[in-house]
Write a structure and sequence with these properties.
single chain; alpha/beta; Rossmann fold; 2 domains; six-stranded parallel beta sheet; binds uridine-5'-diphosphate-glucuronic acid
Length: 456
């Protein structure tokens, strides 16, 4: 094996780009390619097309050092690689299933350009048996090539492996560099050895590596990925139901979360009650997972309930605002947070956007601030129907003269705000905190009328 492993990343989005730069940091020769040529132009100039802490500096560094290159010609990118990581999108179809058409295109492109041996690694989140179908599809295209070009099957050798990603937006680089685990689904020892060689340098010793490196068959690895996101989503919907119970029964969900989370078998994370989970992964993955289960005759109704509970959070939150403020028409409501979670400018499936939509329908005047608002406006703008909302460049300016403030994303900036200044600037100091970022007692002592989710 070469000293420097040559890796190609197909698809330079929220998963592909951090993965590419992580491999470049390890010291591998990485080529990145994508169907979106405008995106490739930006990346080759050192510009990251989305917000992700730490990634800009890495991009400039590894473009400069030559460990990372952008290649517009996908055929060339495939020819040059020993190992191809497939990081293309798997969006949702209208029936909840995953749209795998980008993977089929990848299979054809790989088959048309394969020479010698390649390990093709599926990193995109895909339903179980996708890797098996990817392998079949590549082989079918190769067989056509063999017939047309009079070659033999020895000229085209490949394996397909699965290596699910567990990167969170906002912490993608640290998640890559310090993973909880690396799961690989492989068919044979050759694939396992290459993946081991690729990841080993991330760890201080082979012993530590072996503790974190989990090898399975390809189907199992695909299920591990979907099951991880499904379990996280289930935890969130579970705590949100408890929040409703706490609110009705005059108990405190933050303490309930702490109390159950101290049990090591349950664990404290992903137990923050609020307006629910959003983003490009959790909502779509639970739907795709329950859909694929149904294809195998397994009724995963638990996940459909998790989804339903999550979607209901929005209505419940807005109903609470309506009940307490009485008339919303014409009221000035400050909104803090649009992104689906902190440290990202991603508003896809953001619960905050869903709340904003509902408040707009109720004819309130919205004054919106998000720490990433300039990035949101610059890269794609606000979703249809929201173009006319007033946006502000500081949280206090958005809250000035407001009749109420709603907090929709748990950014640290909001936790550190001068609460006295905030109170003095608002017309009426009422806060609806959809992310439970403050202590109720402290807020009431300052003089706010404060409503968290499931808090006393
Ligand atoms: C998620 C997973 O956490 C990653 O492990 C996975 O790799 C990724 O999807 C993926 O499949 O690519 P991400 O979508 O970046 O990562 O977002 P999360 O950090 O999981 O947060 C999802 C949503 O849950 C956010 O809207 C967040 O505000 C909400 N959340 C999170 C809660 O409402 N309560 C919590 O306790 C935690």
């Amino acid at each position: 094996m070469d000293n420097k492993i040559r890796i190609t990343i197909l698809g330079l989005g929220h998963v592909g780009l951090p993965t590419a730069l992580g491999f470049a940091q390890i010291g591998w020769e990485v080529i990145g390619t994508d169907n979106d040529l405008d995106k490739l132009d930006l990346i080759s100039e050192g510009v990251v097309p989305f917000y992700e802490p730490g990634i800009s500096e890495m991009l400039k560094k590894y473009l400069g050092q030559g460990n990372f290159k952008v290649e517009k010609n996908q055929s060339q990118a495939i020819k040059d690689a020993q190992c191809i990581f497939v990081c293309v999108g798997t969006p949702q179809n209208s029936d909840g299933s995953a749209d795998l058409s980008q993977l089929e295109t990848v299979a054809k492109t790989i088959a048309e350009n394969i020479s010698g041996y390649k390990l093709i690694v599926e990193k995109s989140t895909t339903p179980v048996t996708t890797a098996a179908n990817l392998r079949l599809s590549i082989q079918r295209h190769i067989d056509t090539r063999i017939k047309k070009q009079g070659k033999t099957s020895d000229d085209f050798e490949f394996d397909v492996a699965v290596n699910p990603e567990f990167l969170k937006e906002g912490t993608a680089i640290s998640d890559f560099m310090c993973p909880d685990r690396i799961v690989v689904g492989v068919d044979n020892e050759k694939s396992r050895q290459l993946l081991k060689a690729i990841y080993l340098p991330l760890f201080e010793s082979e012993d530590v590596f072996e503790e974190k490196f989990m090898v399975t068959d390809v189907n199992t690895a695909e299920i591990i990925k979907h099951a991880s996101n499904a379990f996280l989503a289930t935890k969130i919907s579970f705590i949100n139901m408890l929040a409703d119970l706490c609110e009705a029964a005059d108990a405190n969900v933050a303490d309930v979360a702490k109390g159950i989370g101290m049990d090591k078998r349950i664990g404290p994370s992903f137990l923050n009650a609020g307006i629910g989970f959003g983003g490009y992964c959790l909502p779509k993955d639970i739907r795709a997972f329950s859909w694929i289960a149904s294809q195998y005759g397994v009724d995963f109704s638990l996940l459909r309930e998790v989804d339903k509970i999550n979607l209901d959070r929005i209505h419940k939150f807005v109903d609470k605002v309506k009940k307490i403020l009485w008339v919303l028409k014409g009221k000035n409501i400050a909104v803090w947070g649009l992104s689906f979670k902190p440290n990202t400018d991603d508003i896809r499936e953001s619960p905050a956007i869903a709340v904003v939509n509902k408040l707009l329908k109720l004819e309130s005047n919205l004054k919106v601030y998000d720490p990433s608002i300039s990035d949101i406006l610059e890269k794609g703008g606000l979703p249809t129907g929201l173009e006319s909302i007033e946006t502000y460049s500081t949280p206090i300016s958005a809250a000035t003269n407001a009749d109420a403030l709603v907090i929709l994303t748990e950014w640290n900036e909001f936790k550190e705000i001068d609460l006295i200044e905030l109170k003095e600037n608002m017309a009426v100091p009422i806060i609806f905190d959809g992310r439970n970022i403050y202590e109720s007692k402290e807020m009431r002592e300052i003089g706010f009328e404060y409503y968290g989710i499931g808090l006393r």
